[in-house]
Design a protein that fits this description.
It contains nine helices and 25 strands. The chain is of the alpha+beta class. The relative contact order is 0.13.
Length: 409
């Protein structure tokens, strides 16, 4: 045993890295980082973490849990997923941050890679559209300036973008430094609709934490017969472009906005099929990184999965094919009322609300009844929290003071 330990100590760092990068289980890798300071230093190195979890890897993120609003009271609650790396029990959103009582009645909008976008109650801030970006891993909360008041509109779509999103189209250049008062670099995209009688016009707003102010609103859609698809206002983000689902009488479209340049395009989805007997479709990012459209059938028996066959994100048209029909293993009960569904990006999980409140595995079709976990909560407000494994490791192990605490030094 002593000989083996001495041999391990004598191994050069390059050999250790090759061993550690082959550890498949993130929990096991974390425990190895906790075993000694030398291994921890190798693991928390940013180049090692991105080698272990490349940016486009289907396993670079994990579903940590859900944020859900209380049925009575309105406070936002974190509900952990099985083996969540964030918490093993329920806790209020405000408990992640110091002196953040103003978050108790915030409206949950969307999340991405550990960042949570919320709308602060007007009662707390005096503004109708005051937003904040909460970093669940770092424990920071950045309040954004109010949206411009010169356009009378209702918020219809939103997303929050990380530094890696905004640089994915431009190589490996470092992200800009955040401005004074902001903890990290991020961008927020908002679109709102102004309806004048039968006419409607969508406006786009962008905020970047290095510029400290919202852009002037620009018209991003001006088609009276094309409307935002029923369901959540969250975008899906792929290769630096945010996509929202829109539709008209017989066609689906995606509204596309570049995170890097802010350029806008509209793409028609060429789906070769007649009308579906389905509830609201859900735009998602599959585990392999392709864009997918999920159709949950009205009787709750199957999910039709359509995937985009083109890699471009510009305007025009893109062909989509139904690549899979997934049979759900769940109680046979019709879904006879309006409901919401949400799919975490690359998570292979789909949460949908029916009389049983299920989480479905999009690989196997198995479902799990989660009514007990959502007791007393408004499940239609559910927001999945996906976290990035490299960011999680850095937040838990990257701070020298935290490492000293763990090692009891």
């Amino acid at each position: 045993m002593e000989t083996a330990a001495a041999t391990a100590i004598a191994l050069p760092d390059e050999v250790f890295r090759e061993i550690l990068v082959r550890v498949a289980d993130p929990t096991a890798l974390f425990r190895l980082a906790m075993a000694c300071k030398r291994w921890c230093a190798l693991i928390v190195d940013s180049s090692f973490l991105r080698r272990r979890w490349p940016e486009d890897s289907p396993n670079s993120t994990t579903l940590a849990g859900f944020f859900v609003a209380e049925t009575h009271g309105g406070r936002s609650v974190f509900v952990p997923a099985p083996r969540s790396p964030i918490s093993s029990s329920r806790r209020f959103l405000s408990s992640f941050y110091e002196a953040a009582g103003f978050l108790d009645n915030a409206v949950l909008l969307t999340s991405r890679r550990g960042l949570l976008l919320v709308q602060i109650s007007q009662r707390e801030c005096g503004e109708p559209n005051q937003l904040a970006v909460c970093n669940v891993l770092a424990g920071t909360c950045d309040v954004l300036p109010p949206l411009p008041h010169n356009v009378n509109l209702a918020i219809s779509g939103y997303t929050v973008l990380t530094a890696s999103d905004c640089s994915s189209n431009g190589g490996h250049r470092p992200p800009p430094s955040p401005g004074p008062g902001y903890s990290s670099f991020f961008k927020v995209l908002i679109h709102g609709v102004n309806i004048d009688g039968a006419r409607q016009r969508f406006y786009l707003f962008m905020f970047s934490s290095d510029e400290l102010s919202w852009t002037e609103p620009q018209v991003c859609l001006n088609h009276d017969d094309i409307r935002k698809a029923h369901g959540r206002g969250s975008a899906v983000v792929r290769r630096g472009t945010a996509h929202w689902l829109f539709n008209c009488t017989s066609n689906f479209y995606t509204l596309n906005v570049s995170a890097d340049t802010g350029s806008v395009s509209l793409t028609k989805l060429l789906i070769r099929s007649g009308p579906f007997d389905t509830l609201a479709p859900q735009l998602s990012i599959a585990a392999d990184g392709t864009m997918a459209l999920l159709h949950l059938r009205r009787d709750g028996s199957h999910i039709d999965i359509w995937t985009c066959q083109e890699t471009g994100s510009g305007g025009g048209a893109a062909e989509w094919l139904r690549t899979r029909i997934l049979e759900l293993k769940r109680p046979k009960s019709p879904l006879n009322y309006t409901f919401s569904i949400c799919a975490g990006e690359r998570s292979n999980m789909l949460f949908f609300i029916d009389p049983f409140e299920n989480v479905a595995n999009l690989q196997t079709g198995t479902t799990q009844d989660v009514r007990g976990q959502f007791k007393g909560l408004d499940s239609e407000s559910t927001i999945p929290l996906m976290v990035d494994w490299p960011s999680l490791f850095m937040s838990r192990l990257g701070d020298s003071e935290k490492r000293c605490m763990w090692y009891n030094l």
